[in-house]
Amino acid sequence: MRLEDGPESRLRFEAVARAAAPGGTHDVSFPPATNHTAPLQAGSCAAVRETEAATKSGNGDTAGGGIAGIAEAAGVPRPGECCAAGEAVAGGSRVSWHPLAPPRAPLAPRERAEGPSLRAPRECLETRLPPATASLSPPERTVLHVDIDAFFAAIEQQRDPRLQGKPVIVGAGVIASCSYEARQFGLKAGMALSEARRLCPEAVILEGHAQVYRCFAEEIFARCRELAPAVETYLDEAYCDLTGTERLHADLATAVRSLKHAIRDTTGLTVTCGIGPNRMLAKLIGKTVKPDGLARIAAADADGFLRGRPIEQLAGVGHAHARTLRSMNLHTIGDLRALSVDVLESLFGVNGRLLHERCRGRDTAPVNEREIPLSISRETSFHRDTADRVEIEGMLEYLVGRACRAARELAIRARTVSVRLRYSDGEGAERARSLRVPSDADPVALALAHDLLRALFTRRVALHHVGVTFSNFVPAAGEQGALFDEREAGRRAALYRAFDRVRGAYGHGVLVSGRALHLKDRLAQDRHGFVLRTPSLTK
Amino acid sequence: MRREAIQQAVAVRADFQGGAVTPVSFRHAGREQRVTRVNARWVDRAGRHPRFHFSVTVESGDVCELQLSGADLVWWLDSVTLEE
Which of A201, A257, A266, B10 is deepest in the core (most CB within 10 A)? Predict the structure, then answer.
């Protein structure tokens, strides 16, 4: 990446005393739960079942097929024969093994003289390996899904008790969240506010306070991290991987109940918890006990639970997929099992393979603390529709700066930058272009964004909305270093690290660059940045 | 509901018992406003110093939002929400 590519030389920075609010719409979308390993996992399970059958026969000849052959060839003792780690049953006798300190053979005369050799003999290393069966059996997973009930609306009702018991809507343009009282009128997230007003004229409509909601969410997720070693968080929900914590939490249901109470005591909010053998089932079972419920499903019950549920409830089946499936007279998740993986793949592409697994209750997607998002968007409507290029370019520069900072915080670099416009007459335009080398540097992304804006903004109509989206990310550490401008790139990275530190301490608005400075006289600021018209309300 | 941004530093009498801070009353526009209920509290940890926010109901029935800055321990009256 060359410095001349971007307008870094033109950057002007201004320190302001006060820092600022979440500018623009913060929309970080994540890839759908992937299930790449499902076929492999299924194969492994089959092998394990075979192994278990052989073990149960009690003859000590574990592991069928090639697995036993591999174990034998490698000198791995069969269960019951020797002493690796764990416990094995052979011929009805139980043999214990210690995971860390296997019994040592008596020292040889030379070792007694010189001390034990640092290089362990081959046989010794091999006997420390666990039995083949132990390494094959997949651990029983336990996933907890925590969903905050009517998140934004519940917080607004907390902040102002006069709203309790009333239908409350949070959103600008469309419903971002609505209280359970509002849902009784048929309102739901995503519905246009005009439609919501028609259905429920007495509803209280609030624009929302994104920063406040984030504070509450962080508090709740901190509680989840006290319970689970791995927590994957979204705006109003979290997945907690509780696999392997059985000894820590003697009774999981009690531990989750304590979590719910702790959340209620500290935030006043209620959460719905679902516990299952994978993410999909944990979320689905939770949906059956909303709000403020707790439900658990075992892997053995998944089949009966899923069979009669509407097809739309399956993860990965949206409106379009549901329409297609219903047109084929497939109405329930159980009906979907009639289709082979090939048919589903030809209908829905890669997603078809996932649906084939999910309709059988299988979901091997892990719980990741942090994963690479599909895209990072920063967008906003203007307070007043504008055709002023200075204002539009300034806003775009500000949004690109926020998106680049988000990418740097996630240690990822974007390859594709897209700019989206919406004119005041409702017409929209969007265009994307890819960088030759993925980048997280403001000048590089900004130069491309300005090119896209120039190409897009061609009508003599005022703009209502502008946004930028980064996608096609690569990990920041995985980039091939440049031969000649390595030093410049290093200096630039250090510069932006410094900016991010300052902005992290004092807010994004403390450093404003280039054309974004023109926004200073036009927009109000708070400690997080410019106060934009549309706060972060997208999920 | 009508929300009015105030953004003024105010003098607050607070209870610091039990490791938690609870506003008891504050002085605004020359009048002592007694807090009858703390509706919600949250901490904004963005930035170098945390900010402690409180939504409180005062005697008049209005809902006010107070903020204690962790940097300088100054209390601010952020907003007042009036019932229309």
Answer: B10
Q: Tell me: the pLDDT tens digits for B26-65?
A: 999 889 999 999 999 999 987 778 999 999 999 989 999 9
- Is B40 part of the contact surface with chain A (CB cutoff 8 Å)? yes
**B65 vs A: CB within 8 A:** yes
pLDDT at A440 over 60: yes
From the list B42, B47, B83, which residue is nearest A19 (CB)? B47
Of A297 and A61, which is predicted with more confidence?
A297
Element holding B51 (H helix, E strand)? strand B51-58
Residue B44: beta bridge partners?
B51
What residue type is A184 in one-letter code? Q
Structure ipTM: 0.95
Mean pLDDT of A135-152: 83
Distance from the A79 Cα atom to the nearest Cα atom in chain B, whole angstroms: 54
> Could you report the per-residue pLDDT of A180-198, keeping only the tens digit for each?
999 999 999 889 999 999 9
Which residues in chain B are closer than 8 Å to A212, comparing Cβ atoms? 42, 53
* Residues, chain A: 539
User: Residue A118: exposed, middle, or buried by beta-carbon count in 10 A (0-12, 13-18, 19+)?
Assistant: exposed
Nearest Cβ partner for B39 among A160, A219, A527: A160
Domain residue ranges of chain B, discontinuous segments joined by + = 2-82
Phi/psi-derived region of residue A509, left when phi > 0, alpha when psi is between -120 and 50, beta in every other case? alpha
Residues of chain A with Cβ-Cβ distance to B55 below 8 Å are 158-160
pTM of the predicted model as reported, rounded to 2 decimal places:
0.66
DSSP letters along A271-307, please? Answer: EEEEEESSHHHHHHHHHTT-SS-EEE--GGGHHHHHH
